[in-house]
Amino acid sequence: MRLTIPIEEILETVPHRPPFLFLVRIEDLIQGESGTGVYNIIKN
User: Where are the domains of the chain?
Assistant: First the structure.
């Protein structure tokens, strides 16, 4: 089963917060096997 996890659920799971949390969402998560993380880097 492939899952997509939005930022709201990531924030509930991990203790990191911006500016140290770079993940925006996790796509194509196959539990215990693989996943694709989407992140956002902004240059000021």
Answer: 3-39
